[in-house]
């Protein structure tokens, strides 16, 4: 007897949960680290080539 939830629906729910955890546990932290690291690298390169060290201007 069917309990009202089809196997396809259960498989879809499992896939949605796996996707949710992949995004929240892997993708968002990796993108956050890449964004902050990329910004820090950009500021560092600007200081090396154009702006000079902080507090150096007058």
TrEMBL record:
InterPro entries assigned: NapE_TorE, TMAO_TorE
Keywords associated with the record: Membrane, Transmembrane, Transmembrane helix
Lineage top rank: taxon: Bacteria
Spans through the membrane: 20-44
NCBIfam families according to UniProt: TMAO_torE
Protein's recorded name: Trimethylamine N-oxide reductase system protein TorE
Organism: Photobacterium alginatilyticum
Gene: torE
